Amino acid sequence: MVKERPDPCQRQACDIQVCLQANNYKESRCESVLRAMERCCEKPTAQDSVCCSGFRKTNRRKPEDKEKR
Known about the structure:
Structural class: mainly alpha
Shape: elongated
Helix content: 40-55%
Number of domains: 1
């Protein structure tokens, strides 16, 4: 029986959701948890992370870019 390892960035992904919900989905108020997720996704152990699949550094806009829209 093969045991699946938990996603290495699951905790950071959950922290983002909690922060966004608590701050009315304003990314600018969650920069620290977003940076923590970026750092986690940059680690070699996270290369196959499902949580990181849509959260690569090149895909993320700065909050001020979104607010200009």
